[in-house]
Amino acid sequence: MTRHARTRARRAAVQALYQWQITRQPPAEVADQFREEGRLERLDERLFLSLLDGVPRNLDGLDASLEPLLDRPLAQVDPVERAILRLCAHELAHAHDVPWRVIVSQGVELAHTFGAEQSHRFVNGVLDRLARATRPEETRCG
């Protein structure tokens, strides 16, 4: 898969996770809906499904890793930003084949695309601290 297909998968996953957070539909139903609407074309479907399944499955641990890095309770974070942070926290914890800088960069890009005007700064700060906490050896090297 190309880099662009993975980027599109993350974009779709943020939208799907946002929908899951708001509606509480089972992730498999959200994925089926995206598939039926043709929203999974030209993206890395395996990555999309992995993120849509992995975030809810690991939610307690992801939220516990994010909470200490926030200036407010996670429940008070904008739902779009929350979806982005959870997605990236999942990748930092479970996608060791993806460099931490790529994950943080993708999170910032997603915040630029979907978030409020300054949300990219908030997302960048949280993800940078999370990367340093979860991947100390990798982040120490640059």
Question: Could you please describe the fold and organization of this structure?
Answer:
- With about 140 residues, the protein is mainly alpha-helical.
- The protein has one domain: NusB-like (N-utilizing Substance Protein B Homolog, Chain A).
- The chain contains eight helices and no strands.
- It has helices at about 5-25, 25-35, 45-55, 60-65, 80-95, 100-115, 120-135, 135-140.
- Helix 1 packs across helix 2, helix 5 packs parallel to helix 7 (about 120-135) and helix 6 runs antiparallel to helix 7.
- The longest helix has 21 residues, at about 5-25.
- The chain is globular and about 40 Å long.
- It starts with a helix and ends with a helix.
Short description:
With 142 residues, this protein is mainly α. Helix content is 73%, strand content 0%.
Write the layout of secondary structure elements.
Elements: H1 3-23, H2 27-36, H3 45-57, H4 59-66, H5 79-94, H6 100-114, H7 119-134, H8 136-140
